[in-house]
Design goal:
With 610 residues, this protein is an alpha/beta fold. Helices cover 39% and strands 13% of the residues. The strands form 3 sheets. Strands 7-8-12-11-10-9-13-14 form an 8-stranded mixed β-sheet. Belongs to the IlvD/Edd family.
Length: 610
Amino acid sequence: MTDLNPVIAKVTDRIIRRSAPRRRQYLDLIERGRDAGTNRAQLSCGNLAHAFAASGDDKPVIRTGRAMNMGIVTAYNDMLSAHQPYGRYPEAIKIAAREVGATAQVAGGVPAMCDGVTQGQAGMDLSLFSRDTIALGTAVALSHAMFEGALLLGICDKIVPGLLIGALRFGHLPTILVPSGPMPSGLANKEKVRIRQLYAEGKVGKEELLEAESASYHGAGTCTFYGTANSNQMMMEVMGLHMPGAAFINPGTKLRTEITRAAVHRLAGIGWDGEDYRPLGHCIDEKAIVNAIIGLMATGGSTNHAIHVPAIARAAGISVDWTDFAELSDVVPLLARIYPNGSGDVNAFEAAGGMAYVIRELLDNGLLHRDILTVARQDLTDYGKEPVLEDEALLWRDIPASRDEAMLRPVSSPFSPDGGMKLLSGNLGRCVMKVSAVDPSRWTIEAPAAIFHDQDDVLRAFKAGELERDVVVVVRFQGPRANGMPELHKLTPALGVLQDRGFKVALVTDGRMSGASGKVPAAIHLSPEALGDGPIARLRDGDMVRVCARTGSIEALVDAVQWDARTMPQAPPPPYDTGRELFALFRQHSDLAEAGASPILAAMESELGS
């Protein structure tokens, strides 16, 4: 067995030391939850009667209190393709629970918004804080003290982090994430990008664009590109919170049905009354968080997780920062090329060997923590095998080699020697840049700044021909406190067109980019944000800006005396539409992107005295 990479060991040890006081406080908190409050033994007869009044055939079993009752927290709605399959899951879960003498109840539902629907629209301003709303909804669902285990039904961008943040407050409960899988492949990704850029140039109309988009997003399941949703599923595998291999099995298949059934059976076996108790708060420890970051680097995962992973970690009393991300990225090779980093989608990735191959390769080369407490029977070794059906029985088998080295390569011949997520710092602050899909010739961009406070103004300038030059497009007042930190993926086609015309182009923003960010260099999550006098607010049109992923620097090339003397511009007034104003409290109390941009975690730590 190969020894753990020394840099991974060093970063892990640093996180453990940094986190020690808060982690101890967290573990004490969930221990008290199990022993002194959040369990059925504390409920009165009236409490119990309310809780099982409508439980039908399960009522006698729930009433005795002798069997595990599983709480289902579901993000079902039938507008999101990824979550539409969950409509029938509760009944199937209840049947599977009865097979092992347990019961299940839907504890609650949480909202699940689609960034694909709100991208570039006013609703995107609610997107990031929907994660905290989901966390609160999950906590409400599990607060009824009726459950000895939890099944979390959610996949997409903010949903999985939100479910975990909420469930970790009830970390004494064994908990399994239950995905529903990606939709089958549709229109080839290269063709989709071509049509989008033609539309941005005015060379095709809306009908042609809608036809292409409809052929891409065409059925039930997650979108098939490797954005934040599918990066979520990857992370749940390397953290050991799924049944092994559950991430990328298509909805509606027999294998999907059986692996969901296996998750229910397994949850019944890891309760606190048995000999294999595996509570969520112990499964998510410092090593599991490091594994999540390593998985992001090895597969070219979404930059959104530079925000979500620190937030999930904080909910478990663990502190990570972007320096940890950068140091891990330097030693973790890129093993996968999944669109937008390559041509094939997650279905092609799964066919090539998927997460089982990635995990096996990383483990065999000392690049993942094997000894974590997973929801499976052993440790992370279980996740290096793929699930299959043989004679109707669910089994797991080895994958000796990649089935397609254009999609998936071994550690010995990776696509890149590092993970492609860079930390940039300088007189503009700290930010991250994903370079796994950026041509190395564009890792350094030095050009005059064009300043905007709204992404629609960028598109107007593009259409007017005002950006036909080398340019660093700066979109500021997009941070969590300013407007909720929306994604700016709407800019991707226009910036891609400028780059294809031969210009040096980069995006600098205190907002987010999509998990599908690709070939255009994008320095994102810039902190401190413009609102509150972050340095990005000092930039003026025409200032030379240098963004360099090679040296890890982001600089305004302005005389220091002149720079320090500049006054801050007036922040744009907040818009009032789509319910954004309801989230004013969240915006006012959010903290830095590097800490997770979470108002509820900041408030919780303050109350607990961290």
